[in-house]
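Blinded run. Sample ID left blank on purpose so nobody reads anything into the name before looking at the predicted structure. Input follows.
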Amino acid sequence: MAEVRCEAPDSAAQRGQWSSEPAFVFSMAAAAVGLGNLWRFPYMVGENGGGAFILAYLIALAVVALPIMMLEVGAGRLARGSVVGTYRQVNRFGAAYGWFVVLLTIAITSYYLVITGWTLGYAVSAMRMAVEPFDEFTDGYNSLWYFFAVTVAATAVLIRGVSAIEKFSKILMPVLVVMIVGIIFYASTMDGWSEARQFMFRADFSALKNPGLWFFAFGQAFYTLAIGQGYLVTYGSYIPRKTHVPRASLVVAGAETSIALLAGWMIFPFVFTYGFDPGAGSQLAFDTLPRVFDEMGHGAWLAMAFFFLFFAAAFSSCLAGLKVIVAAFSEEFRMGDLRAVLAVGCLMLFLGVPSALSFSPIELTVRGMPFIDFMDQFGGTNVVVASGVIGAGLFCWFMPRPKISYALGAKSRWWEYRIFIVGRSLPFLALAFIVWTLLD
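Blinded prediction complete.
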């Protein structure tokens, strides 16, 4: 069994740090809340039958995803390096898996930037007091131009480093929550409120026999907490030594799950009121919200505030993904931070174009679905789940248990044992799930 070194790599001394545990919590929550919950969670609920999916998602989150989240944050804190450097210290084959995680994050971030461009486009439209339906917004090449704008802006913010992300996140989170709650109060007056409540919180328990439902639920749970994508390892490498990892992770997970459920409460009453299809896919929020603000009193001003906050939340998700990639490039290729940021920015400008062309006159598709939807279903669910399972197995089979305890910064052995058991058993449970799927 390979032993993980506790000492930080040489670059750790030059690494920035979150100023405190609350700063880490705000930054990590903002990173995953943006698109994972406001955009992706409602459309995944809509496509997978509502209440049964939510129940399966909450079980997956509490039983499996949360312990793995703590493990990844703790590992990043222990190694104090990029995701590649962290996994290299776990096992001699770990560097290959670390690069797999970086490639996955590159793929996800490439289409994240496109969706963030949509939010920016809607914010700009709101400033002109003319929020367009999604079909009209994507009638030309707006998706492509706003993708370019967001990528350049994210590159500029990353040049400023960790402190810029921290300040950005502290302002974003409270204001965003207040805005969402306000829209929910308005939604409670709509005709579709009762139907939305039944859709979200009345589960068809027979659906839980469907392995596909559980697969998407685990995918969303992993996606919500940013598992298997390098975010947690990279952000964990910047936290102060005295941070209590289980406590910080519980707060982040609680905030993200709450906002995901609030996002559903915000979207679905209007979906049912105006007769939209809850299984519309990735454009669900962008189809629904313009109609909402058009019907509301002072809707133009509320649209302006909401879409700028939506953009800010999505932008923070992009920064988190880019930070994972930049850290790996900087450490592994011996590049300065500025060169690494510029290199990653140029790479994203190239790789995001196919997703940006999904909703444009070109209508780029794969297997009959928009290219961006294909990327999200394949990378955002299938590969993310596989990545999370492999990473947990590597940590818990090759990292001695005392190292896990040290990484968590917690005196209680409850989380240490739970994480160790989940991480070691997860690869075998995944194989059993595959067999169940094949036999279904």
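Unblinding after everyone has recorded impressions. The longest strand covers residues 365-366.
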